[in-house]
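TICKET #2291
ISSUE: user wants both folds in one file
ATTACHMENT 1:
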Amino acid sequence: MTQTPPKPWHKRTRAVHSGTRRSQYGEVSEALFLTQGFVYDTAEAAEARFIEAGPDEFIYARYGNPTVRMFEDRIAALEGTEDAFATASGMAAVNGALTSLLQAGDHVVSAKALFGSCLYILEDVLPRYGVEVSFVDGTDLDQWKAALRPDTKAVFFESISNPVLEVIDIAAVADLAHGVGALVIVDNVFATPVFQDSIALGADVVVYSATKHIDGQGRVLGGVICGTQDFIRNTAEPYLKHTGGSMSPFNAWVMLKALETVDLRCRAQAETALVLARGLEGASGLRRVIYPGLASHPQHDLALRQMEKGGTMIALEVAGGRAAAFRLLNALEIITISNNLGDAKSLVTHPATTTHQRLTEAQRDALGISEGMLRLSVGLEDAGDLLADLQQALARV
């Protein structure tokens, strides 16, 4: 039986208890229903379920599963949406949210500062099927206003861009988009469901790579689309269940257990990120330290209005370009080189040669991704140890 949280529950409580379904055994920890299919007492029962399945009736794991449904209910409660659909990965969530909604002749406006795979969907995949996409500087409201048209079906952006950490004014963009009847789809990975209420700010649909902070321990892939029940069940679900983009029950179970600590983890990581950003700002060998929690960040005031904290991600621009950036990476002793983020372990990557390597040099320059830029995902290690590690690596550069 689904447990719906009362409104007074805080996020940390919702992340632990929302959506719980207990079997007849009354287990404390959520059960893992590792099954592909489900059985029916009679042929008539099978027929009835295929016509209309009830809230606790399931047909096939690609369509839904009790463990997956618990995760969907819990993340929807945490995000403040009516419903959610769990996907196989974060990119399945981005692709599913966009492709399920759009058709040939539709128009989309997107911020140009995006993760490389998101750019691929918007630049290559959607136009292939007749969807027109206009790109804008996400921080420039005049560009959003100029690009929006009466036939614009949706707008898409990362609330904090990967990897240069631009902060988009969700409320302002949503107001402009809703003025022409467009749906607002926000990738909220960097801001996390802990620090930002995108729906309250005006977003209609919020997507996450659950692989990142939601799992938070580098174990499994997953994604999720959060929105109204109508969008999730009548738009996203039909597309995703028939094209195979759903989350596995095992991964959903891992995500459920991870949600119990997501608030604690993200808050500790953000506190350490602020310590590191302050400790590194102005350091010899660094051209810039980019962190929304620093007063030097171009959208610092906006970040404080939209988010509780500055987040867990820092961008560092190393003087000396790629060679110097590589020397710093190779000198680190605690922080690990990896293209993942949101992990309990601090991870760092060189976007120009990894996550954004498919972009041309001109495209990277336009996005501010220099050869010296590093993207640092702050983990749960001691802040003093991490700062010392970065400082000793900088000294070698």
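ATTACHMENT 2:
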Amino acid sequence: MSASLALRLCVPVGADTAVATRRAAPGTLQEESQACPAVPPRVEASSLKRSSWGVLLTGVVGGTLVTLYAVVTPFVTPALRKICLPFVPATPKQVENVLKMLQCRSGSVVDIGSGDGRIVVAAAKAGFRAFGYELNPWLVWYARYQAWRAGVHGSTKFYISDLWKVTFSQYTNVVVFGVPQMMLQLEKKLELELKDDARVIACRFPFPHWTPECVTGEGIDTVWAYDARDFRGRERQP
């Protein structure tokens, strides 16, 4: 293709005829090519493809971060609290010792910081109406599944709640897997809330000022039982 033909192709419709028909001076072909650039189709397709991959990658990374946040937050948040109650599953021996302390008892059972629900499920199997309070929603849903799997979902209930915002006066038997930093504060709370016929069962760590009615197990499996009428300094009823 000659330089003059290239010039004619680049001139807009309606332009001056003299300009459209003049012959290009030697050496002006490069300038004409720059004036009428053409984007190769392959380059456009490649750019669109890279853009699509970028959007997809951003979506995948964003979705992964959101999922990670939703899963990790319920486990990390309690650790940031002033008094941390970590999730440590009860051993089979601990569950057995708790059930020993519930023998000859009646009424309801509540597990403070119920975790995966194994104490609540075991109490329900023993014939109690059992309840659990747990701050971690994932553990609550897992506990509900375990109760359904064990066939005791009709006699159990699990709540997503902070134990310091709950009143336990309606429960007859209270089970707690605590840590030393919380036992004094919890001791004061239960003294104010529980009725005289209530029993408190502490696992792993005892209450600092109460005298237990009985103790069973050893090491991490030790369980202490306290009767409300005793830690209030009242005489036991016949």
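RESOLUTION: both attachments delivered.
EXTRA DETAIL ON ATTACHMENT 2: Residues 210 and 233 are 10 Å apart (CA to CA).
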